[in-house]
TrEMBL record, chain B:
One GO term (biological process): auxin-activated signaling pathway
Domain PB1 span(s) in chain numbering: 200-286
Function, in words: Aux/IAA proteins are short-lived transcriptional factors that function as repressors of early auxin response genes at low auxin concentrations. Repression is thought to result from the interaction with auxin response factors (ARFs), proteins that bind to the auxin-responsive promoter element (AuxRE). Formation of heterodimers with ARF proteins may alter their ability to modulate early auxin response genes expression.
Primary location: nucleus
Sequence similarity: Belongs to the Aux/IAA family.
Protein name: Auxin-responsive protein
Length: 585, 286
């Protein structure tokens, strides 16, 4: 074999590789030859682990000895909706312990849906001298004591982002643990916390950090105090307000409006808890530059929303409640031609009768009027095939289409038939669709369309849909790029799953709950597919106390090179290769 | 290349005309669905049983046609938990002869246990899924549906004025049902102790000067500030320009386990939660 690799100095290759950041490209590089594999692994600095159980910390450390940034994801997505019982797993402690010893120069840790403890946070604070960024997205298990340790010790911290996490909020005092000498804060998101903080401490922190770009407050910061903070940080690019309500007082209003107008770089607004319409105009001065607006916690009615949006011609992202109504979405389509992403959340999803006048028409308007719109999450109560087809034709550039018709199995309200054709049109026209959530009345035919057309689809969410295993078979056999599939309450059973067993190794994970997969099939799958972890989650007790044909409550299957895990609670069983032994934790 | 296999451990070959192992599976599905899973040692809950027998069909029809949601969870219900029992979907699956249609590539298994269900399945399929209004006012309840996060749900509850009585949808943390059963304290609506339902914790709140007491779910809050705000919002009932300045001039007191009335805010939140029995809120001074 020619020794070509040695004729090219390693340092040069390393330098070339440093320009290549994407994981996929790095993976390709590492497969060119052995020496490239070696060089690449020593200089890979950023790791993304989409499923923390797919690989072990030791394996990652062994292959990549000098990592500076790691991202880990834990629980399945349906954990957001309480479908994954508490205690299922997703513990980050073993990772932190291992990395504390192996990666002293680690700078960034990003976690999603993981269980984090105060001990881990303390270990992070002590172990990584150059620690810069901690992002805890939808995490839980830690308290403000852990945050205090981070604040006190991480001298070079730039980013502390707790978005959507469930924090045991003992007090707001932790913020005061940032020493007076600490000035490097760039991004702070504490919007999920409940406790009041010392406003003076907050103000001083904001005041001494000249690089602060993103500040997302929690709701305890009253609107009257917002102006003071803003005057300390006119360089802000992203702002999340606290509670946005007060009795209308002219001096408070003008103070706030003035402070906001001083923030010339402001591009993104969020927060707005308890927002009252009276204070909305205070933001008008910065609206012309606004690209992102999150009003999804604001119970503001459509006339006020329309007025506000008319000031935002550059808006790219809008999250809003369905108070916006069809009329508001029509106005949005007219004012915001640069819109890329829209999310419309339900204001009262637990009643049968619509409380607002928001229908499929709103989505039709936006898809027609906004040429750059590519990502949608839309909650509504009625839909028709005609509307979906129009939407698909209007907007073939959708990459993410998530439609939630609130009542399960709702048919086309015009024809009373299934919505198969409508979703068929979506997948047929939107050739770049990567993420899809379907709802309403759907037969196997809808899945046939998905399997036939959705070739770029990576993530699919199904609920209360389909007729038989044929539906699941269409998806598993047709969607070539499928990585994540999550299913609840669909009549899919053993056959399609087993017949497409090999497909599961090409995916990150499959979640099925309240379906018809039998325990026997799970065992068989676990036996036959050693590189899959087949987890049966069943709160009724051990599955072998019931017949093998009995369906399991929940099933989570994911590929893994780490083998079965050992941190499972009493209601989770991994189906082993050894079919006679069930691992009980 | 092996794509997969079937329950009899036969390899599934791509050109196998898509036969979804018709033969033996019938029994396995009957086994799965003919059997009342609730018959076994599943102590606490009625679990989905997808029996396609006549009785259930009628019941299914009557109640909620295509409404998959089970459980109106009654506070007095000794542990019948709301588990999504999508009964209709399974009967639909059975009742429908999928092979009847232009199923292009595959002979699809039709695992209908018997002929009767065919008709019933068909009937169901055509029915229009609307919520049966003649049922109680209590909202129907499926775990995790619609798919919105807990933090969002909590906010909606607060916005919709503290929620209606019997509002059980909010589950802050999803604990395993087996251990939840132990946590359940069933109390009638007249009881003065907190009622823990589905991991919520309701206590009675009385506002001075307001004749009707309300109930608030303490698990939705993790601080006194949050609790106080929610109570003020609940009782004052108006969103336009309510003065937040006034929030300081409310006094919150609580009755602890010993029966003593104490000022809220002195002890850490966690201790407070463990001992609070009921709340009272009053305006300060005059």
């Amino acid at each position: 074999m020619l020794r070509m690799a040695s004729s090219f100095p390693e340092e040069v290759l390393e330098h070339v590789f440093s320009f290549i950041q994407s994981d996929a490209d790095r993976n390709s590089i590492s497969m060119v030859c052995k020496s490239w594999y070696e060089i690449e692994r020593w200089c890979r600095r950023r790791i993304f682990v989409g499923n923390c159980y797919a690989v072990s910390p030791r394996m990652v450390i062994r292959r990549f000895p000098d990592v500076r940034s790691i991202e880990l994801k834990g629980k399945p997505h349906f954990a957001d909706f309480n479908l994954v019982p508490e205690g299922w797993g997703g513990y980050v402690d073993p990772w932190i312990s291992a990395m504390a010893m192996a990666y002293p120069w680690l700078e960034e840790i990003r976690l999603k849906r993981m269980v984090v403890t105060d001990e881990s946070l303390e270990l992070i604070a002590k172990s990584f001298k150059n620690f810069k960024a901690l992002v805890l997205s939808s995490c839980e298990g830690f308290s403000t004591d852990g945050l205090a340790a981070i604040a006190a010790n991480c001298r070079n911290l730039r980013e502390l982002d707790l978005r959507e996490s469930d924090v045991d909020d003992l007090s707001g005092h932790w913020l005061s643990h940032f020493p007076d000498t600490y000035t490097s804060l760039v991004s702070l998101d504490i919007s999920c916390l409940g406790s009041e903080m010392s406003f003076t401490a907050l103000e001083r922190l904001v005041g001494r950090c000249p690089n602060l770009r993103s500040l997302r407050l929690n709701r305890t910061v009253p609107i009257e105090k917002l102006a003071n903070l803003l005057r300390q940080a006119p360089q802000l690019v992203e702002l999340g307000t606290g509670a946005y309500s007060a009795e209308l007082r002219p001096e408070v209003f003008s103070n706030l409006a003035g402070a906001l107008s001083g923030c010339k770089e402001l591009k993104s607004l969020s927060g707005f808890w308890e927002a009252v319409p009276a204070y909305l105009p205070a933001v008008y001065s910065i609206c012309p530059g606004l690209t992102s607006l999150n009003l999804s916690y604001a119970a503001i009615q459509s006339p006020h929303l329309i007025k506000l949006l008319s000031h935002c011609p550059k808006l790219q992202r809008l999250w809003v409640l369905d108070y916006i109504e069809d009329v508001g979405l029509e106005a949005l389509a007219a004012s915001c031609k640069d819109l890329r992403e829209l999310r419309v959340f339900p204001s009262d999803p637990f009643v049968a009768e619509p409380n607002v006048s928001l229908t499929e028409q709103g989505l039709v308007s936006v898809s027609g009027g906004c040429p750059k719109l590519h990502s949608v999450l839309y909650f509504c109560r009625q839909m028709s095939n005609a509307a979906l087809t129009t939407i698909a034709r209007n907007r073939p550039n959708f990459t993410c289409f998530r439609l939630c018709i609130i009542e399960p199995r709702t048919p086309d309200y015009l024809t009373l038939g299934p919505l198969d054709a409508g979703f068929g049109a979506i997948v047929e026209h939107c050739k770049d669709l990567r993420r899809l959530s379907v709802s309403g009345l759907l037969t196997d035919r809808a899945f046939e369309y998905i399997g036939t057309y959705a070739k770029k689809l990576e993530m699919l969410s199904l609920a209360f849909a389909g007729d038989s295993d044929l539906g699941l078979h269409h998806v598993l056999s047709g969607c070539e790029n499928l990585r994540k599939l999550e299913i609840r309450d669909c009549p899919f059973g053993d056959k399609a799953l087993l017949a497409n067993a090999a497909k599961l190794e090409t995916m990150r994970s499959l979640w099925m709950s309240s379906c018809m997969v039998s325990y026997g099939a799970c065992k068989l799958l676990g036996q036959k597919m050693p590189r899959l972890n087949v987890e049966v989650i069943d709160e009724r007790g051990p599955p072998d106390t019931r017949p093998e044909s009995c369906p399991v409550e929940k099933l989570y299957i994911y590929r893994s090179v780490a083998g079965p895990r050992f941190d499972m609670p009493g209601f989770v069983w991994t189906m082993d290769e050894d079919s006679s032994a069930l691992r009980l934790s | 290349m092996i794509k997969g296999f079937d329950m009899n451990d036969r390899r599934f070959e791509p050109d196998d005309c898509g036969s979804f192992a018709i033969s033996k599976s019938k029994r396995s599905f009957e086994g799965a669905f003919g059997r009342k899973i609730g018959d076994e040692a599943a102590p606490h809950f009625l679990v989905w049983d997808g029996q396609p027998n006549e009785e259930d069909d009628r019941k299914g029809h009557k109640k909620r046609d295509s409404h998959p949601i089970i459980n109106k969870f009654e506070p007095d219900d000794c542990g019948s938990f709301a588990i999504s029992k999508s009964k209709r979907s399974f009967e639909g699956a059975f009742g429908r002869k999928i092979g009847d249609e232009a199923a292009p590539h595959f002979l699809v298994w039709d695992g209908q246990p018997n002929e009767e269900d065919d008709r019933k399945g068909h009937k169901k399929r055509d029915s229009h899924p609307i919520i049966n209004k003649s049922e109680s006012d209590e909202e129907s309840y499926i775990v995790g549906w619609p798919p919105i996060t807990s933090s969002r749900k909590r906010e909606l509850i607060l916005q919709n004025n503290g929620g209606r009585v019997g509002h059980h949808q909010i589950i802050k943390k999803r604990t395993p049902l087996i251990s939840m059963a132990k946590n359940i304290m069933i109390s009638g609506s007249n009881s003065s102790s907190p009622s823990i339902i589905n991991n919520s914790m309701y206590v009675k709140v009385k506002m001075e000067g307001v004749p009707i007491a309300r109930k608030i779910d303490l698990t939705l809050h993790n601080s006194y500030y949050s609790l106080k705000n929610a109570l003020i919002t609940m009782f004052t009932n108006s969103y336009d320009g309510k003065c937040t300045e006034d929030r300081g001039s409310y006094r919150l007191t609580y009755q602890d386990k010993e029966g003593d009335w104490l000022l809220a805010g002195d002890v850490p939140w966690k201790s407070f939660i463990k001992s609070v029995q009921r709340l009272e809120i009053a305006r300060n001074g005059g």
